[in-house]
Amino acid sequence: MNSITKEAASVDNTELAADNANYIDILYEQYLEDPNSVGTDWQTYFEQYKSPNDEPHNAIKDQFLLLARNQTANKVSTDTNSSARGHRNNVGDNKQMGVQQLISAYRRRGHRRAQLDPLSLYPRAEVEDLTLAYHNLSEADLDTVFPTNDLNIGKNEASLREIIEIMERVYCRYIGVEYMHVTTSTEKRWMEKYLETNLGHISFDTEKRLSILERLTAAEGLEKYLARKYTGVKRFGLEGGESFIPAINEIIQRAGGYGTKEMVIGMAHRGRLNLLVNILGKNPADLFDEFDGKVQPEKGSGDVKYHNGFSSNVMTPGGEAHLALAFNPSHLEIVAPVLQGSVRARQVRRNDQSLHENKAGNSVLPIVVHGDAAFAGQGVVQETFQMSQTRAYTTGGTLHIVINNQVGFTTSRQEDLRSTEYCTDVAKMVHAPILHVNGDDPESVVFAAQLALDYRYEFDKDIIIDLFCYRRNGHNEADEPSATQPLMYAVIKKLPTTRTIYAQNLIAEGLLSKEDETRLEDEYRESLDRGEYVANSLVNEPNEQLFVDWKPYLGHDLVDDWDTSVDIEVLKGYGRRMAQMPEGYKLQRQVQKVVEQRLAMQTGEEPLNWGAAETLAYASLVNNDKVLVRITGEDVGRGTFSHRHSELYNIEDGSMYVPLAHMSEDQARFSTYNSLLSEEAVLAFEYGYATTVPNALVVWEAQFGDFVNGAQVVIDQFIASGETKWQRVCGLTMLLPHGFEGQGPEHSSARLERFLQLCAEDNMQVITPTTPAQIYHALRRQAVRPIRKPLIVMSPKSLLRHKLATSQLEELANGKFETVLPEMDQQNPDNVTRMVLCGGKVYYELLEQRRALGLDHVAIVRIEQLYPLPEKRLIAEIEKYSNLKEIVWTQEEPLNQGAWYYLAPHMFRIVVPHPTRAKVMEPVARPASAAPATGSAKLHVKQQQDLIAGGLGISVDELSI
C-alpha cells in the first residue's frame, strides 16, 4: 500500500486527529463491508487506500493510526468554544461512529419512513437501522454535540437531537429519496448537498405558491367540468393525481431556462387529456367536439382522443420552446423507446448529438410519463433503460414521472403487483436516482421536479419521480372501483382533493382569501364555457423553425417507377474512396481481402455482390443526395453474414473506422451502430427516429428475420397502422434475413405472411429482392422519392455471395427498382406452356434446375414487390405467353405461411376470368405447418427437392442432383 501523505480535502481535519484513530478504523471496517454505509466524502477518502495486493487490514489500520498521529491541523474548528471542545473530546469513538452510521442510514433508508401515501392505507414496517439503539445510541445522547462530518447543514457540529430533526425533515417527510445505489460518488455528493442544503424542501415565495394553486385549479377544474358534461364517458381522468400538472409545468419552464428548445413527452392514458388542454394548449372547444362525436378523420381510421398526439409552442424564461406529445397506442410503455428515437433525431437535427461520442446536449428534453403497474411490469421499460447510456441510443438523460395509483387496474395486493418493494426498482439497473413523493403535497412535488431536472442537466442521466397518488374514479369513469378495493375507496370518498387541501393551507397562512380561492375556480370554469385556451404560456404564433416541415412528403401517390440512376463514374469514385484507409491502418486478413474485392466490383472490374451494391447505395445517398443514413441492429456493422463490413477495425489498436462516414466534408451523416440484444425497444426507437427526420434512410436489420417476432407490437401498432390512425408517415426500412437454408424453425422465416396480412391502404411496401442491383435501387428509391412509407425487405442470406446473384455496375448506374423481373433466358415465348411465379432465393434453385434439364417450356418470373402488388406489370408478363396452360406460385414457406394466402385472391382474379390466359392456378409449397421449418437437415433437403420439382412440374427423380 502506498504511503499516506495527505487526507481527502472533503474530510474535516479534526476527524483525523490522533484521538479519533479508532473511530476512523471502525468507520473503515464499515466501509469495507458496505461502501454505501458511510458518507460519500468518507467513501471518496477511503477509496484511495484500497490495496491492490490484498494487504492485510492490520497494515491499513496502522497507516490510519500513523496518519492521525502526524496530523498538525487544529483538532477543532476555530469557531468552537473551549467547553464544546472539551465536551467533544470526551465523546467515545463508538458513539461518534454510531452517529455517523445513523446519518448514513437516513440517507440509505430514510425513504422507508417517508410519508408517501396520501391515503395512509398501508402502514410501513419500522426501519430498524433508523433507531438509536441500533447504533448504540440512546435518548441520553440527544443533547450531546457531535461533529456533523459531511452533512450539508452549514456548521461543523450539532447535537444529536438537531441532527435527527434535520435528517427527518430531509429524508422522511413527503419526499423519500433513493440514491445510495448510484455508484458515482460525485452524483451522491451532489444529491446530498441539494437535499440537505434545502432541508429537503425549497421555501417557495407567495407568488410561486399561488401559481401552484392556479395549476392545481386548472387540473381539477377540467376533470370536474368533463365529469359534469360527459358523465360516465371514458376520459381516464387525473383525479387524485392533480399535482402532476404543476410538476410538468415547472419542468417545462425550468428546462426552457436551461436553453432547451424542444421537449418531447410520451404518456399513456391517465391525465393525457388534462395535459393536452392545460399544458400543451389544446383548445377545450376542440376537445369537447371530440367528446360530442363531431370530429371525423379526414382519411384513415383515426384514433380515440386519449391516444392522439399534439404539438405547440410555449414561452419559457429561456425563450420559445416546442412541445410535442407523442402518439400512443394502448400498449402502455411502448411509447418510451419511440419517444427516445424521436428525441435523438431532433438532437441530430440541431447538431446537439455527437456522432462518435456517447454524448447529447441540452437542446431537446425527453419526458416519459408512466403508470406504476406498467413501469414495473412491461419489459420494454427495462430495454429502454438499458439503451439509455449506449452510443447508439443515448439522449442525454430522460426525466421519468410515474403516476403511481398504487393499483394496477384492479390489483392492489403487493404480492400480485410485483416482486419488488417499489414499482420503480427496475430503474436501479442504470443507477438512476428515484424521488418518491406524496402527491397530496404539491410543493414537495414541484421541488422534486426541480431537483430531477437539475440532476438531468448536471449529469446527462435518467432520473425518476415516483408520484404517489390515487385514482378517485377507478381505472376509467365507467368503472366501479369499490368492488375490488372497498377499503381504499372508503378512504378516498372522505378525502379532500389535493387542491382543496393546498388552498386551505394557503388560506390558513393568510396568503389567500376564501373569495380569491372561489374566484380562481369560477374563472377557469368560465374560460372552458367560452372554449378559450387555458394553458398559461401558449405562443399563438409559433416559430416554425422549431419543428420540421413535412409538407413536401405528403399527398403523393405511391408510384413504383422512380429514377434512381447515378453517373457510373461517380459510383466508381465512391468505390475508390471507400477503399481508402487512414495511414497505417491495418485490417484483418480476410477483411482486407473483402475491401480489395469490393474495390474491383465498385469500379466495374468485376460483377458486384450484395454488399458491394448495398454500400454503394449508402455512399450515393449521403454524398449525391445529402440524405442522412442510419443503420442499427445486432451486428449490423459487419453484417450477421459478413457481407457489409461498414465498420473496419485496426488489428493493431482495435480502433474503428467507418469509410462511409468520411467520404467528403459536405456529405450527410452516416452512422452504423451495433445494437444491444433487443428487438422491441430498438425497432421502436428507429420508428420514432424515422417519423421525425424526413430526409433520411433509417434502417433496422434483424440478425435473423424471425427475431422480428420480439417486436411485433411495434409493427402492429406503429409501423403498419400509424399513418391511418394518426396521419403519421414514416420511411423506416426493415431488413429481415429470410430464406430456408436448413437452419431450423427459428432461423428460416421473417414471417412474410404477417406483414402481408397487415398491408392495406398503401400503408407500407414489402419486397423480396433477388439481385444486388435490386437492393441498390430499392434503398435509393426509398430515400429519394418524396414519399415516406415503411419498407419491409425480405433480405436474403445465401444470395449474399451466390454465384448467380450478381449485377453489373451499369445496372446500378442506369437502372431502377423493378417490381417484376421477367424471364431472363432467351426463349421462344410460343414454346412456354408453364409459368412459375416466385420470389426470393428459390428462384435461383428453380433456374439452375431448369437450365440443367433444358425445360424450355417453363418460364420463371419473379415478383420482387409483393405489396403494393404490381398487377399491371404482372398481367403484361403473363400476356407475353399465348400458349400458357399452367401458372404456379412456388414458395419455400409452408402453404399456410408465406405469400400464397395473400396472393391467391389477386391471382385468381388476374388469371382465371381471362379467356386467353391459363385456366390452372395453383401453389407449390411445403405442407401446411405450425412451425416455419423443420429442424432436420435431411427432411429439409427432401422438402426443398419436392417443391423445386413441383414448381417445374416434374418428378423428384428427374432433378439434376
TrEMBL record:
Region (Disordered): 75-94
InterPro entries named among the record's database cross-references: 2-oxogl_dehyd_N, 2oxoglutarate_DH_E1, DH_E1, KGD_C_sf, ODO-1/KGD_C, THDP-binding, Transketolase-like_Pyr-bd
Domain Transketolase-like pyrimidine-binding: 608-802
Record EC number: 1.2.4.2
Entry annotated with the keyword Cell membrane: no
Regions of compositional bias (Polar residues) in chain numbering: 75-84
Coiled coil: none
GO molecular function, one term: oxoglutarate dehydrogenase (succinyl-transferring) activity
Annotated Pfam families: 2-oxogl_dehyd_N, E1_dh, OxoGdeHyase_C, Transket_pyr
SUPFAM superfamilies: Thiamin diphosphate-binding fold (THDP-binding)
Cofactor: thiamine diphosphate
Gene3D superfamilies: 3.40.50.12470, 3.40.50.970, Multifunctional 2-oxoglutarate metabolism enzyme, C-terminal domain, TPP helical domain
GO CC entries: cytosol; oxoglutarate dehydrogenase complex
Keywords from the named record: Oxidoreductase, Thiamine pyrophosphate
An example Gene Ontology biological process: tricarboxylic acid cycle
Record's protein name: 2-oxoglutarate dehydrogenase E1 component
Organism: Psychrobacter arcticus (strain DSM 17307 / VKM B-2377 / 273-4)
Gene name tied to this protein: sucA
